[in-house]
Write a structure and sequence with these properties.
alpha/beta, Rossmann fold, 2 domains, eight-stranded mixed β-sheet, five-stranded parallel β-sheet, 16 helices, binds cytidine-5'-triphosphate
Length: 416
């Protein structure tokens, strides 16, 4: 569980998005966090404290003089028990109050008294978000090191459309996971391929494979959590775009190859997770193939697709390359042979038919030092472990990061 042992104070202020904070509390708990809700009076106009109490199993606080806290100092007690204070939704009024250091209710006082990071997910009408007063308050808070999660843009509860909507609870929870991930890849650019490819036979038929893209997408997400600038070249899959990832959709192996070659310049790391078709149909038909009178099958001819991983690994200024190997047997021997054939420093071998489409996997890492086994786990957990393994190897192989990128990352980190 990605937020196991994390203690989160969830502040709920007055905005209609407060109803989504209930879903957020559950999502954070489902990821292993303990959630302590603190509400403003305006927040309680939208959702009752009992809802949060029932959902979190913890008493909800809103009064700075609450007698349930023995020393009558809930602003100190609650903030000292937290790893992070997350205010979602954060109203324009609340941002204004904390930008000026006001302590006129428990939540604002707690924000001033805290010794842990503060993250806010703003939610307000677009005019309020764009108002110069709010812009000043946001700038002040950013300067104070407060992290902003959103807002999103789209249709608002008031019927207007624009920037100011609170991000969806699951997106906010993803930000929390990223917040707690050490930034081993800050300043690094990573390019990945994931999913299957689809090689057309005619306009309605084609050849593909059972890859779901789940492992590659989980890896892209884990790398983004670790601070990498991630570009994901994805074959056909219905998976949602992972957190913090720039996604380029392709269909065929040739398109995947061309997209990778166009993007690989400046990458520090390339990971080929995609199950790329080795062959394409050389004589694909422009119109739908019809059954012939005698029932003879079409005369399909195949051409070899480029090996994307091998092509990247042989570039003069190649990034650190990681390959995956989908095998049906003898992982170690086949993996070692594939690592040599592709010319990559690290190869992750797995049993292809036992992982395609599944939510869990296990990996055998093969590099010059030998074998490292990553035990069976859900793909997000496995991806987080693999990211650490890659970070160790990448830092040893390419310890220097370009200075400009490093300082940009540092500036971003200040507000994270
Ligand atoms: N790969 C690639 N381009 C290809 C074929 C494979 O980039 N045309 C990459 C995959 O993304 C993976 C690695 O090479 O990282 C190994 O893929 P795999 O399908 O296991 O191996 P193949 O090279 O296709 O060999 P075989 O199918 O014969 O086992």
């Amino acid at each position: 569980m990605e937020l196991a042992n994390r203690r989160i104070v969830l502040g709920v202020t007055g905005g209609v998005a407060a109803y989504k904070a209930a879903v957020l509390a559950r999502d954070l708990m489902a990821r292993g966090a303990s959630v302590q809700v603190v509400m403003t009076a305006a927040g309680q106009r939208f959702v009752g404290a009992e809802t949060f109490q029932a959902l979190t199993g913890q008493p909800v606080f809103s009064d700075a003089w609450d007698a349930r806290i023995e020393n009558r100092m809930p602003h100190i007690e609650l903030s000292r028990r937290a790893d992070v204070v997350l205010v979602a939704p954060a109203s324009a009024d609340f941002l204004a109050r904390i930008a000026h250091g006001l302590c006129d209710d428990l939540l604002a006082t707690l924000c001033l008294a805290r010794d842990c990071p503060l993250l806010v997910a703003p939610a307000m009408n677009r005019q309020m978000w764009e108002h110069p007063a709010t812009r000043r308050n946001v700038a002040t808070l950013r300067d104070d090191g407060v992290g902003f999660i959103g807002p999103d843009s789209g249709v608002q509860a008031c019927g207007e459309t624009g920037e100011g909507r609170m991000l969806e609870p699951s997106d906010i929870a993803e930000h929390l996971c990223a917040h707690f991930t050490p930034k081993r890849f800050a300043g690094r650019r990573v390019l990945l391929t994931a999913g299957p490819t689809f090689e057309p036979i005619d306009p309605v038929r084609g050849i593909t494979n059972l890859s779901s893209g789940k492992m590659g997408f989980a890896l892209a997400r884990a790398l983004a959590f670790a601070g990498a600038k991630v570009t994901l070249v994805a074959g056909p899959t219905t998976l949602p775009t992972p957190f913090g990832t720039r996604r380029l959709d392709v269909t065929t192996a040739m398109q995947m190859h061309d997209a990778v070659m166009a993007e690989v310049g400046g990458a520090d790391l390339f990971i080929g997770v995609a199950a790329v078709a080795d062959w394409r149909v050389a004589n694909a038909s422009k119109s739908k193939l019809k059954k012939t009178a005698g029932g003879a099958p079409p005369d399909l001819q195949f051409a070899l697709n480029p090996d994307i991983l091998a092509a990247v690994a042989s570039l003069p200024a190649a990034p650190y390359c990681v390959g995956f190997a989908a095998e049906s047997e003898d992982l170690e021997r086949n993996g070692q042979a594939k690592r040599a054939a592709k010319g990559v420093p690290l190869l992750c071998a797995n049993i292809g038919h036992a992982t395609f489409g599944r939510d869990d996997n296990e990996l055998l890492l093969i590099d010059e030092a030998g074998l490292t086994r990553l035990e069976r786990a859900d793909k997000n957990t496995l991806a987080a472990r693999l990211v650490l393994e890659i970070a160790n190897r990448l830092e040893a192989a390419a310890p220097d990061r370009p200075k400009a990128r490093k300082s940009r990352a540092r500036r971003r980190g200040k507000h994270a």
